[in-house]
TrEMBL record, chain A:
UniProt protein name: Multiple sugar transport system ATP-binding protein
An example Gene Ontology molecular-function term: ATP binding
Highest rank taxon of the organism: Bacteria
Coiled-coil ranges per UniProt: none
Key word ATP-binding present: yes
PROSITE patterns per record: ABC_TRANSPORTER_1, ABC_TRANSPORTER_2
Domain ABC transporter: 4-252
GO cellular component term of the entry, any: ATP-binding cassette (ABC) transporter complex, substrate-binding subunit-containing
Species the sequence originates in: Sagittula marina
One BP term from GO: carbohydrate transport
UniProtKB/TrEMBL annotation, chain B:
SUPFAM superfamilies: MetI-like (SSF161098)
Transmembrane segments: 15-37, 80-101, 113-133, 161-186, 207-232, 267-291
Keywords: Cell membrane, Membrane, Sugar transport, Transmembrane, Transmembrane helix, Transport
Protein name: Multiple sugar transport system permease protein
Family statement drawn from the similarity comment of this UniProt entry: Belongs to the binding-protein-dependent transport system permease family.
Domain of life, source organism: Bacteria
InterPro entries per the UniProt record, alphabetical: MetI-like, MetI-like_sf
C-alpha cells in the first residue's frame, strides 16, 4: 500500500495557477479528505494523483518513488467519479469486470475478432466470475448484474462505480465528490457505506468534497484548501476546534463560526456598533484590533440583560432536536433587513420559546473564544499555548 | 346566447398545433408525396414523354419489361456496389478524420477548413474540376501516375476504372460531411468515461473501442443511412463524369432512369426504375430503424 508524498506540487493552465506548492503526505491506510469550495484545485489534485492530469511542477512520490510520469494503470489506483462514469452500453456485470478484462489484455488482442473472443473468454474465467459476483453481493448489486446503467437509479449507479473500482483490489482509492449527485437521504446512507468500506478494506482513501459534513464524518484527516493553497491539515476535531484562519473557521461548521471584528481595550472588547463587554479570558497581547471567533454551540442564549452581549432575535431555524438562532447584536431594531451577514448564530438544544424581534442576551465561557489577526485572518494562537495570547490578570 | 365555440378560446389553442403541422404537410404533399404517388401510378401506365398526361393503365407490363432487361440487373448491381462502397469507405474516412481532428493541436482549424472543402464547394462545380483532373490527355491524375511510372490511366473512359473514379469523387464529397457530423458526435462523448477507462487500464485504442465508438455509433449509423440514400439517388456526379458509360459500366438506376425517360421517352418504364430505387432506399431506412429500435431496447434493459 502506497504512502504518497507531495513535494511542492503545482499545476498551471496557461497563465492560470490552480495549485501552488502543495506539500503534504498521505499516510498508508488513512481516509484523507480534500475539502474546499468549488474551484479551489482539490479535484485537480486528485486527478494528478490518478495520473489523469499532468503535474506542472514539484514531485509526487509513491512509496518514495518518483511517480510524476506514471500512467494511471502503473499507479494502481481506483477512481470514483462524480458522474459515476459508467460504460453506458455495457451491462453492470461487464462494467464491473472491465478492469479485469483490461488486466488480461495483450497488444495482439487488438485484432478485431480476437478482441471479442478474448473478452468473452476472460468474462467466463471462474476467478473473474467469482470476483464480480463477490463484489456484486457485497454492494447488493446481484439482481442488477444484467441491467444497463441507463435503467439504474443514482444510488445503484454509484454502487456499480464503487464495485468497478473495488474489483481490482487497488491499494489507493480516489473519490471525486461521489455523493454530490445523490439526494440527501441516499447521501447519508452512502456516506456510512463508504466509511464502512474503508474500515473493512483498510486501504488508503483520498476523498474530494466541498461538503464539510462529509469531511467531518468520514475523514481521519482533512486538508482544507482554498485558491490552490492548503489552509490547514488536521484531524476533524483539530479543524473544527482550532481553525488555522478565518477561512477555515467560516468554511467548516454549519452554521459557521461567529467572527466579530473587535477593538481591544484592556479587558473590554468593543464590536461594531458600540457594543462593549468584558472578556476576562485570554486575548491577543499588544493588539488593539483583532477578530473574535466563537462557535455557535459555545454561545449561550439568555434572557435580556442576563448575558454580556445584548441582542435581538432575527432568525429562528427549528431542526427538531435543536434550534439555530440568528441574533443581531445590540438592541436596535434592524427594520426590514433580511441580510444574515451581520448575524451571530447560536445553536442550542430544544426550543428557547423566543420569537422574531424579541430582545435577549448572549454569553459564553471565556476559554471558548478563538482569536484571529485582523489584517491576515490567521489564528493568533491555539487557545491554550501561545505567548501572543495571554490572560489579562 | 353563447358565442361560437371557436371564439370562446377553447378550440383555437387546440387548433394551433395543427396549423403549424399543416404548413410543412402541405409542402410535402405538393412537392414530395404527390409526385411520388404519381410516379408509382405512372409505373403502371404506358405514358410516353410525347404525351405525358395521357397514359393508359397496363398493369405490371413495365415491371415485366424491366425484369427481363439485362441492363436493369447491371444497373441494380452497379447501384448496390456503388452504395455499399461509398458508405463504407466514406463513413470510415470521415470518422477517422474526425477522430484525428478531435484533439486540439497546432493548425487544427486550418486543416479542418481544408478538409471540409469537398463538402462546401457546389457539387457540379467540384465535379467539373474533377472532370479536368481525370482528363485522359491533360489531366493531373494521369500526370501523377505517369510520374510514378504507372503510365497514363484512362480514368473515366475505361470500363475497369470509371466506377472507381466516380466512387473516389463521391467519397471526396461525402467524407467531409461525415467528418463534420462525427466531430459533433465526438464532442458528446463524456470525458469522465474515457478517463475511467484509462484508470481501468485501457490503452488509447481500447478507450476508443470501448468508450468512444459505442457512444458515436448511433450517429455513425444515421450518417451511414444518409450517405446510403444519397448514393442510391446520386445523379450529377455520375452524369457529369461519365454519363453512365463507358458501355453502361457506371449506369446506376438513376442514370438509367434519365436515359429511359428522356432519350427513350418511356416515362412509364422510367417510373418503374424509380420505384425500384425507392424500394431500395426504403429497405436501407428500415434496416436502420430496426437496428436503432433493437439498440434502444437493449440499452433500456
Amino acid at each position: 500500500m502506497p504512502k504518497i508524498d507531495f513535494k511542492g506540487i503545482s499545476k498551471t493552465f496557461g497563465t492560470n495557477t490552480v495549485i501552488r506548492r502543495f506539500n503534504a503526505t498521505v499516510e498508508d491506510g488513512e481516509f484523507l479528505v480534500l475539502l474546499g469550495p468549488s474551484g479551489c484545485g482539490k479535484s485537480t489534485l486528485l486527478r494528478m494523483i490518478a495520473g489523469l492530469a499532468e503535474i506542472s511542477g514539484g514531485e509526487m512520490l509513491f512509496d518514495g518513488k518518483l511517480a510524476n510520469d506514471w500512467t494511471p494503470k502503473q499507479r494502481g489506483v481506483a477512481f470514483v467519479f462524480q458522474s459515476y462514469a459508467l460504460y453506458p452500453h455495457m451491462t453492470v456485470r461487464s462494467n464491473i469486470a472491465f478492469p479485469l478484462v483490461m488486466d488480461h489484455f495483450r497488444k495482439w488482442h487488438h485484432i478485431p475478432i480476437v478482441n471479442t473472443i478474448h473478452r468473452w473468454q476472460v468474462m467466463k474465467r471462474p476467478e473473474v466470475k467469482a470476483a464480480v459476483d463477490k463484489m456484486a453481493e457485497q454492494l447488493e448489486l446481484t439482481p442488477l448484474l444484467d441491467r444497463r446503467p441507463g435503467s439504474l437509479s443514482g444510488g445503484q449507479r454509484q454502487r456499480v462505480a464503487l464495485a468497478r473500482s473495488l474489483v481490482r483490489d487497488p491499494s489507493l482509492y480516489l473519490l471525486d465528490e461521489p455523493l454530490s449527485n445523490l439526494d440527501a437521504k441516499l447521501r447519508t446512507q452512502m456516506r456510512s457505506e463508504i466509511t464502512t468500506l474503508h474500515q473493512k478494506v483498510k486501504k488508503t482513501f483520498v476523498y474530494v468534497t466541498h461538503d464539510q459534513v462529509e469531511a467531518m464524518t468520514m475523514a481521519t484527516r482533512i486538508v482544507v484548501m482554498n485558491g490552490g493553497t492548503i489552509q490547514q491539515i488536521g484531524t476533524p476535531d483539530e479543524i473544527y476546534d482550532e481553525p488555522a484562519n478565518t477561512f477555515v473557521a467560516k468554511f467548516v461548521g454549519a452554521p459557521p463560526m461567529n467572527l466579530l471584528p473587535v477593538q481591544l481595550n484592556g479587558k473590554d472588547l468593543t464590536a461594531g456598533e458600540g457594543i462593549t463587554w468584558t472578556h476576562s479570558g485570554q486575548k491577543p497581547v499588544g493588539e488593539t484590533k483583532a477578530i473574535f471567533g466563537i462557535r455557535p454551540e459555545k454561545l449561550e442564549l439568555r434572557p435580556e440583560k442576563a448575558g454580556r452581549l445584548p441582542a435581538r432575535v432575527a432568525v429562528i431555524e427549528r431542526l427538531g432536536a435543536e434550534t439555530i438562532m440568528g441574533c443581531r447584536l445590540g438592541l436596535a431594531d434592524a427594520g426590514d433587513s433580511i441580510s444574515t451577514e451581520d448575524l451571530v448564530f447560536v445553536r442550542m438544544p430544544g426550543h428557547p420559546g423566543l420569537s422574531h424581534g424579541d430582545a435577549c442576551s448572549l454569553d459564553y465561557a471565556d476559554e471558548d473564544a478563538c482569536w484571529f489577526d485582523k489584517p491576515t485572518g490567521q489564528r493568533i494562537a491555539s487557545r491554550h499555548d501561545d505567548t501572543r495570547v495571554a490572560a489579562i490578570a | 346566447m353563447t358565442s361560437p365555440l371557436l371564439f370562446r378560446g377553447r378550440l383555437l389553442p387546440r387548433l394551433v398545433p395543427y396549423a403549424f403541422v399543416a404548413v410543412p404537410l402541405a409542402y410535402m404533399t405538393l412537392f414530395v408525396f404527390g409526385p411520388l404517388i404519381q410516379q408509382v401510378w405512372m409505373s403502371f401506365t404506358d405514358t410516353r414523354l410525347m404525351n405525358p398526361t395521357a397514359g393508359d393503365y397496363i398493369g405490371l407490363e413495365n415491371y415485366q419489361d424491366l425484369f427481363s432487361d439485362s441492363q436493369f440487373y447491371t444497373s441494380l448491381n452497379i447501384t448496390i456496389v456503388y452504395t455499399i462502397l461509398t458508405v463504407v469507405i466514406g463513413v470510415l474516412v470521415g470518422t477517422i478524420s474526425a477522430v484525428a481532428l478531435d484533439r486540439p493541436f497546432k493548425g487544427r482549424a486550418i486543416l479542418r477548413t481544408v478538409m471540409l472543402f469537398g463538402w462546401a464547394v457546389p457539387s457540379v462545380a467540384a465535379t467539373l474540376v474533377w472532370l479536368w483532373i481525370f482528363n485522359g490527355q491533360s489531366g493531373v491524375a494521369s500526370d501523377i501516375t505517369e510520374a510514378l511510372g504507372l503510365g497514363r490511366v484512362p480514368w473515366l473512359t475505361s470500363v475497369d476504372w470509371a466506377l472507381t473514379s466516380i466512387m473516389f469523387v463521391t467519397i471526396w464529397q461525402v467524407a467531409p460531411f461525415v467528418m463534420l457530423v462525427m466531430m459533433a458526435a465526438l464532442q458528446s462523448v463524456p470525458e469522465e468515461v474515457r478517463e475511467a477507462a484509462r484508470i481501468d487500464g485501457a490503452d488509447a485504442l481500447n478507450v476508443f473501442r470501448n468508450v468512444t465508438l459505442p457512444c458515436i455509433m448511433p450517429t455513425m449509423q444515421v450518417v451511414a443511412l444518409l450517405v446510403a440514400v444519397w448514393s442510391i439517388r446520386r445523379f450529377e456526379v455520375i452524369y457529369l463524369l461519365t454519363g453512365g458509360g463507358p458501355i453502361g459500366s457506371t449506369s446506376t438506376l438513376v442514370v438509367q432512369l434519365r436515359l429511359t425517360a428522356f432519350e427513350d421517352f418511356e416515362l412509364g418504364l422510367a417510373s418503374a426504375y424509380g420505384v425500384v430505387g425507392l424500394i431500395l432506399a426504403l429497405l436501407v431506412a428500415s434496416i436502420h430503424f430496426l437496428v436503432e429500435r433493437r439498440r434502444a431496447l437493449v440499452m433500456l434493459k
